[in-house]
Automatic annotation (TrEMBL):
<keyword id="KW-0732">Signal</keyword>
<comment type="similarity">
    <text>Belongs to the leucine-binding protein family.</text>
</comment>
<dbReference type="InterPro" id="IPR028082">
    <property type="entry name" value="Peripla_BP_I"/>
</dbReference>
<dbReference type="InterPro" id="IPR051010">
    <property type="entry name" value="BCAA_transport"/>
</dbReference>
<protein>
    <recommendedName>
        <fullName>Leucine-binding protein domain-containing protein</fullName>
    </recommendedName>
</protein>
<dbReference type="Pfam" id="PF13458">
    <property type="entry name" value="Peripla_BP_6"/>
</dbReference>
<feature type="domain" description="Leucine-binding protein">
    <location>
        <begin position="2"/>
        <end position="204"/>
    </location>
</feature>
<dbReference type="InterPro" id="IPR028081">
    <property type="entry name" value="Leu-bd"/>
</dbReference>
Amino acid sequence: MGPLSGDEGLAVRDLAKSHPERVFVNGSAAAQDITLRDQAPNFYRFSPDGAQWMTGVGSYAFKEKGYKRVATLAEDYSYPYTLVGGFMAEFCHVGGRVPKKLWVPLGTKDYSSVISSLPKDIDAIYVALGGADALTFLKQYKQFGGKAPLIGGSSTVDQRVLDSKGDIVEHLVGTISGVPIADDNPSEGWQAFVKAYRAKFPDAYKFPSGTLHS
């Protein structure tokens, strides 16, 4: 079983093809191509892909927030491709436009050229960056005086980013996004799961991952 990264999921799918006598189960890798295209008949997924997580976000951005033109910024590999594609499919279907798509390598340290190349006539920026990349961009976007509201890819608004210290994440206030489940979901079932998780793994991450438990 496994893994988590989209590119790793693609590698495991290809490995499965060379071992047809074995069953492989995807962990929570959310790249769409793992099972949508060039499938391995013995590789299964039981969790959504990143495009499915974006269901409703494009329509809400256009119809409720009034965003008509949105630029995208994402890491340059399979999982963010899926997130951006899922957002764009719906956003553009209802009438939105994406004048520019920007892709950056994992671990990018300097976003100055990216920020300066963002169109001036956009209503928002769709950001699909995770972990340290998200924090680095948010810090530099604030330093550059960025004012456009953000739409978050699933990893951009996960608890690793939201729990960061300082005021970097203030720009995420009001950000819309799509994730498997919010870490502070008040439902009784989720809270019971969180309680059991913390009792079982007291030294682990503060919140169970919505992607890994699903």
